[in-house]
Automatic annotation (TrEMBL):
Taxonomic lineage: Bacteria, Bacillati, Bacillota, Negativicutes, Selenomonadales
GO BP term, pick one: regulation of translational initiation
PROSITE patterns: UPF0029
Residue ranges of domain UPF0029 in the record: 142-196
Protein name: IMPACT family member yigZ
One Pfam family of this chain: DUF1949
Length: 212
């Protein structure tokens, strides 16, 4: 299981505004996970900004960012959708859709100007969103006696290991969250720390959202 970068999932999209040569570029960015979700968001923006000259878009989907699409929506070929797509790719994001709405101000920007404007507008949207790293962690359930609890808890704090709420019964079960590659080395450390007086069970590997 690999990690990947995306933006935080919210009910509302993030909105930014960029103005140049009297043209207004309104950017909306949102977390989506399917083609259908991306297309629905693009259509919603076109409906909301029906009076705009252009609603250009791009999206990237999948854990490997292998689904990519862009649309110039009437701008000269390659001057709008592709710069938006490149902004997403340069930030190594996936499961993201961006729509940049342009209200034409009467002054032509030229192909180079359009590329820069749409790219910059997309970057502003990305910078305004909360970016996260979906990072794999493996659950390791460790059961110890109360006599070892303080020692193990000190080790956990010292090593800055992520944990979930412990279970307290006749013994204590600590729920550790470890990068998959660290599981074996952490078990060796625990054996040394407790003289092998513990029981462990490896749980599922899942992704956790971390700020990036």
């Amino acid at each position: 299981m690999n990690g990947y970068r995306t933006i935080r999932e919210t009910d509302d999209s993030v909105e930014t505004l960029y103005e140049i040569q009297k043209s207004r570029f309104i950017t909306h960015i949102r977390h989506v996970e399917t083609d259908e979700g991306a297309r629905a968001f693009i259509q919603a923006m076109k409906k909301q900004y029906f009076d705009a000259r252009h609603n250009c878009s791009a999206y990237v989907l999948g854990e490997r960012a292998d689904k990519q699409k862009s649309n110039d929506d009437g701008e000269p070929g390659g001057t709008a959708g592709n710069p938006i797509l490149e902004a997403i790719k340069k930030n190594a994001l996936t499961d993201v859709v961006i729509v940049v709405t342009r209200y034409f101000g009467g002054i032509k920007l030229g192909a180079g100007g359009l590329i820069r404007a749409y790219g910059h507008a997309a970057v502003l949207g990305i910078e305004a969103a909360t970016r996260i790293e979906m990072t794999p962690f493996t659950e390791l359930h460790v059961t110890i006696g109360y006599d070892l609890l303080a020692t193990v808890e000190h080790w956990i704090r010292q090593q800055e290991i992520r944990t979930e709420e412990a279970d307290y019964a006749e013994a204590v079960t600590l729920h550790l969250l470890l990068p998959p590659a660290e599981v074996e080395s952490r078990l060796i450390e625990l054996r040394d720390l407790t003289s092998a007086n513990f029981q462990s069970e490896e749980g599922a590997t899942r992704r956790i959202a971390l700020p990036c």
